[in-house]
Specification:
Blueprint: H1 2-11, H2 18-21, H3 24-43, H4 47-60, E1 64-65, H5 66-72, E2 81-86, E3 90-95, E4 105-111, E5 116-127, E6 130-138, E7 151-158, E8 164-169, E9 179-180, H6 189-192, E10 207-210, H7 222-235, E11 245-251, E12 256-258, E13 264-267, H8 270-284, E14 292-298, H9 315-327, H10 333-341, E15 344-347, E16 351-352, E17 374-377, E18 381-382, H11 393-405, E19 410-412, E20 422-423, H12 427-431, E21 436-441, E22 443-444, E23 452-455, H13 456-470
Parallel strand pairs: 1-2, 4-14, 4-15, 15-21, 16-22, 17-19
Antiparallel strand pairs: 2-3, 3-14, 5-6, 5-11, 6-10, 7-8, 7-11, 9-10, 12-13, 13-23, 17-21, 18-20
Helix pairs in contact: 3-13, 8-13
Amino acid sequence: MGNYKELQEQLTHTYKNVWSEIDEVETKKVFDLGDEYKLFLDAGKTERECAREIQKQAIEKGYVDLNTLVENKTPIKPGMKIYAMNRDKAIVLFVIGEEPLEKGMQIVGSHIDAPRIDLKPVPLYESSDMAFLKTHYYGGIKKYQWTSMPLALHGAVVRKDGERVDISIGEDENDPILFITDILPHLAKDQYTKTIGEAIGGEDLNVLIGSMPHGDKDTKEQFKLNVLRLLNEKYGLQENDLVTAELEIVPAGKAKCVGLDRGMIAAYGQDDRVCAFAHMKAIFEIDQPKRTAVGMFMDKEEVGSQGNTGSQSSFFYDIVAELINLQTEKYSDLLLRRSLGNTKVLSADVGAAFDPNYAGAYEKQNSGFAGKGIQLVKYTGARGKGGCNDANAEFMAEVRKIFDDNNVIWQTGELGKVDQGGGGTIAYLLANQNADVVDCGVPVLCMHGPYEVTSKADVYMAYKGYKAFYL
């Protein structure tokens, strides 16, 4: 019997729970990192705010603006720390390695946009003695989840005088909140007959922003006018300034610990700011790597990565070309192609954590679990792997060895049952440039909900895993 047990231990494998494997010293590191992560989430409720927070922390760590180096034609050297900001919505960090860029890079790439509700270009109207904002949702949301909950308004407005005004309403303790109403259950007979996806329509997501009039009995649209008056007094805005604005409705409130043991975090936007935070922390601890370490923090992933701030734009390739040009006097497109072809990438996006309340949507043996570490996802896509990047076995083995050698607790997983649905990440975009890429991130409960849940243990193991990959 003893021989059978020994053989079983040698041949079989069970993924470990992080909490059962770490000691008191490392447990404290987990909780300390979790506290820091919550502050990061609170500081970055939108892609703009998140990009600026990363820029702020990078500058504090000694990173310099690539534009300055290009303007001054400053040669780059090993150990230099550089950032490149793209329109305040995406940012890339570099730590220049000992080897030339032609030999490839170690990239960890995440996205910092999140599902939300945007304002329409002409949003403000009044009805039934109340003022509302018309909206257009962004990314894959369950619309019914956004009613009857505290909401905040974040974003930027470019006024007609050209000045940009940053707005945040609903986060300070003394701020008012905004709200999307829902019908009371006593009168919801018709609503109950609809499917859950039809119960709240896209045009029903109108945000309540005011209920007091301004003016006299001859004043038209007094409730709308009062909102405009308040916006003008605080921000100098007029109604036509809202056309040149990017204003987002997000859940109000701060990130919170979950459970009496405080082992988890609930917050808006953890897809994918949890991975962004983890590899930001990791790259900040890299000083002079063998190969150039790169942290990508991109926009627009939730709507397909199109646009000049998304991963499908040429921005990243342009700035790598600029770096190669500063590193060698013999720049050519061939050097850029070689650099990309020799590059290794962790596409740092979240995975779906197994939820026992909805077990029927998952294939448990091939699911990721909250608390079992960073999750490797060989392929995403939908049903027959449609739209996926399918990492090759050699690169999977390489990443596995890095994690094992550095005591990183990891697991594998898929996004639910084969025919249940699916999803994608930015992984295929760099893979299309001939880089080796695999998805690797934190498993999340309630993904794309107004509040998502992660394990502090997984956040910590993601940080450890990304740092090991950079080295």
